[in-house]
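=== RUN LOG ===
request id: a7f3
mode: sequence -> structure
chains: 1
length: 343
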Amino acid sequence: METASRVEAVTKGGSPVVPSQYIQPPDARPNLHHAEDTAPIPTIDLSRSDSATTESIGEACRNWGAFHVVNHGVPIHLLDRMKALGLSFFQDCPIEEKLQYACDSTSAASEGYGSRMLLGAEGDVVLDWRDYFDHHTFPLSRRNPSRWPLHPPDYRQVVEEYGNELKKLAQKLLGIISESLSLPCSSIEEAVGEIYQNITMSYYPPCPQPELTLGLQSHSDMGAITLLIQDDVGGLQLYKDDHWLTVPPISHAILVLIADQTEIITNGIYKSAQHRAVTNANRARLSVATFHDPSKTAKIAPASHLIGQHTKPAYKEVVYGQYVSSWYSKGPEGKRNLDDLLC
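=== RESULT ===
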């Protein structure tokens, strides 16, 4: 069971000073004076299933590695209920009860309630100003709702339903992304193999010194595709052309983030989105990220259709489980684990 302190416990002390283990090195600290610089990522209407939509998604993947989708087919009441459940757990549940669901801090991406993302000895890594709850939802053999909170009474049912809906959306998007490269619709999903889905609720309490901390350090997601919803507080930033740009929340839209394995499969034509979360002093923030990843034994390489006489592989083949181990043990530091695979 995880015994490390949670950010919630730190904030309850009321100290105006951030503990040293949360202070980022100077070159990683956010410049909050530029927090109003926004990322004009596209918003794409999925109710239109035509070539223009496919082209728009391809352009967004090429230029941003990210885009919002609306009219995505996921019931709006389900989006609202997921965020409400997250807030209820983090804000209303006593910490003693939350700790009954504590994750294993010695295991990467362990299911349950935690605060520390990276592996390693205490003091070796700077901690994020974030608490989280990670749910394993696909394949169904990994899904065990008894490991999730009992309260509110519909918590487990809603998480299961949400996972089902988000998996369908992820598969649809992977198909469109494949077609945008003139690949068969099933190409990327077949390269990924059986989808492993995790749903992570992240809670960022108000921080007394937001200029020194990060809610989530700079990284790109390691899997295939991530679907994220957030509340109206804001704090997510994308790295583009050597600048950090804030992604304004859009009510009931879902943010799509291309992840590292899709960059490899598309031979670098489409880029995974480097992003981070900043904190603020006044309002707590909640987001829900749903990750869709390959199995640990999957071998990921550039799609053969994209390799030819004049186009060489940009990335070496990698076993996904080895990639995950490297990510959690060395740390992401932006996209360095992906860069290590460049040919």
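=== NOTES ===
The first strand starts at residue 43 and ends at 45.
The radius of gyration is 19 Å.
=== END ===
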